[in-house]
Specification:
Organism: Geotalea uraniireducens
CATH superfamily: Collagenase (Catalytic Domain)
Largest sheet: 4 strands, antiparallel
Number of domains: 1
Order of helices and strands: EEEHEEEEEEEHHEEEEHE
Helix content: 10-25%
Protein name: Peptidase M10 metallopeptidase domain-containing protein
Keywords: Signal
Structural class: alpha+beta
Shape: globular
Number of strands: 15
Strand content: 25-35%
Strand order of the largest sheet: 1-8-9-14
CATH class: Alpha Beta
CATH topology: Collagenase (Catalytic Domain)
Length: 256
């Protein structure tokens, strides 16, 4: 683990074409926010910021429509793939819902950040590196050291980033993902940074899930009182599954 100043040094894989970029159409379905949430922000503001994080990372010219809102779920958040297709196969539309009725609201509550792009609530930024066969890449970027109510709540922004990642390819309903992860790994292809890496994925009784088996990735890790940002692992796995070729990785120069 490296403890660094709160600064991300970006490694550009392919110079972004300013005329094309990933576009996430957002359709707010409504719903009632949970009464025990803290922070005072809105789901719309947080979801917009999470979409922008992925849009800033992926610059391929592609549009996906995501419906989102509050609902009474059996988990903190959930993603459903509504339609997929095209060449390459990608999710076309999906639905993402967030829990608004915690079973034990005294223990679980959301931090709904009114300024989700600023990260001012956290004092420490930590990066983690792992080598999966193609060189050491950033496997995690975590903000910690919060105080007050933030320390006792689950970050809605982190959950939104993870759910959007499912919509960008890391979904058990995505046909390409199912084929790629059949051996337990997402293999980073030739021509990509860290080519030859095999990113392991978690499994349950039903098969492999859309979560890398790599601690501190945005697509796996979400802890009370912390915020998880996109890592090389998250972006490379989504790019591999959805065949995105124009993207930016948050790699520092060290170890590259």
């Amino acid at each position: 683990m490296k403890m660094l100043p709160m600064l991300a040094i970006l490694l550009i894989f392919s110079a972004p074409d300013q005329a094309s970029a990933l576009t996430i159409n957002r359709i707010f379905l409504g719903g009632t926010p949970p009464g025990n949430s803290v922070g005072g922000g809105s789901l719309q503001t947080v979801f917009d910021a999470a979409c922008m994080a992925w849009e800033n990372a992926i610059h391929d010219n592609y549009t996906v429509t995501l419906n989102y809102g509050w609902s009474d779920l059996s988990s903190s958040a959930a993603h459903w793939l509504n339609s997929q297709g095209g060449t390459p196969n990608r999710e076309i539309s999906g639905t993402i819902l967030f829990e608004n009725n915690w079973n034990d609201p005294s223990v679980f509550r959301w931090f709904i950040d009114p300024t989700p792009t600023q990260n001012e609530e956290w004092a420490t930024f930590s990066t983690y590196h792992q080598d999966f066969g193609g060189g050491p890449m950033i496997s995690g970027r975590v903000l910690s050291g919060a105080a007050g109510d933030v320390l006792t709540a689950l970050d809605l922004y982190s959950a939104a980033v993870q759910m959007i990642g499912h919509a960008l390819g890391l979904s058990v309903s995505n046909r390409t993902f199912g084929a790629e992860v059949a051996d337990g790994n997402v293999g980073i292809p030739a021509g990509f940074p860290f080519a030859g890496s095999g990113i392991p994925f978690q499994a349950n009784n039903y098969g492999y899930t859309g979560h890398p088996n790599v601690n501190y990735t945005a697509m796996w890790y979400s802890a009370i009182g912390e915020r998880t940002l996109l890592s090389d692992v998250d972006i490379l796995c989504a790019a591999t599954i959805s065949n995105f070729s124009n993207f930016v990785l948050p790699s520092s120069q060290e170890g590259q």
